[in-house]
Amino acid sequence: MRTPKTVPPVKRTDITDITEKCTNCGNCRVICPDFKYKKEESHSTRGRISLIKGLYLNELNNTKLLSDKIFSCLNCGQCSKYCPADVDYKTLIKLSKSRLSRNSYIKRFVLSGLFSSDKTRSEFFFKCLRKALVLFYSKPAVRFFRYGLLKLLRLPGDSVFPQISEKDFFSLGIRNKLSSYKGFRIALFTGCGGKYLYPETTDRFVRILRHSGIQVIIPKNQVCCGNPLENAGILKQSSGNIKINTACYNSLKDIRCIVSLCGRAMNSLTGRRYSEKIRLPLKSWAELFFEENIRIKPLYKSSVIFHLCPKCGSADHYIKLLNTAYTEDDKKPEMITEFCGSTELMDRSNMAVRDSVTGAFFLNNSLENYTHIACVSFECVEHLNSFFIRKNANIRALHFIDAFDL
Ligand code: SF4
Ligand code: SF4
Q: Which one, 46, 214, 315, 380, has the greatest CB density within 10 A?
């Protein structure tokens, strides 16, 4: 694993100002999954803050061991809720991972292409990936391709890639009838998940909205939300994506709000790090359903469990929606509000911690008793399916919308 020889110079505003706020109270250790797994101070939030501080004040050397401890963080953000000093740990870890970048040239090339702020480039990379994945999952004769690809990307031998749909959302060519128009439009932010991985889920969502009299605008110029790049420490490009999406959605007129099917993608639009802000209100799709009294029927009565990951934001609207969708005659839906372990899919440095968190999540919630788990972000769907396939578990993850119909 390549590690840079020198650490870039300290920028007081973005590293030391954050680390100096930490009072060393240790509250954050209670929740940190990495600390629970390793049981070492240097694998806790507080420990990582001390390491980062030492590194940027040139008191510690940038060794592989130190870098491993920093990359062990799953970016779950749970520690921030326990911090009385309001330390902006999320920004700290992102800046640190970016500066200690462990991306090989190939990985950076692939990630920057797939999640590019240039729509045409991104489409080309997804087209190539679609073809590559056909080979990856094909017969033994071309299995050498699988071995080569994993080696190239420095991923473990049992890695599972997301399946990419044959057509992206804009190529589906499906039109849904608009009935009894309510008189307003909303803008949908699909993200890569809703565009390339799960276009049918997006289409189902548009069908439900149009059937309920809501017109949906889906700008073709939107690009990836930037989360995969940010998680991989490619911050500059991630900022570029957010800027393009902000400009794209701010140019829309007569729109009531922006919604997305992906909790993580939606979080990126808050644009805290950028001067230009999203002008339109951002709403969770469940909040919209609730406000507009959109009725949906559950497709599964007993074999599904609903997952409201704390990494995706507030669970309140999803809980209200579930309680309304499941009528009194139905068995009440079962829900999990625990972190599932999802993090950057192409980072192998925290695989053991991640597997331990997801393994505990699987056992604590007796997931072997269900056929499906419904999630509110495409990243959780992908993370959980990758785990289930690797562990030969029968359950599969799907998006919330795919657990309902009109
Ligand atoms: S973000 Fe999650 S894994 Fe990282 S330090 Fe905080 S609680 Fe631990
Ligand atoms: S809870 Fe906040 S102030 Fe306390 S040790 Fe953790 S990061 Fe520092």
A: 380
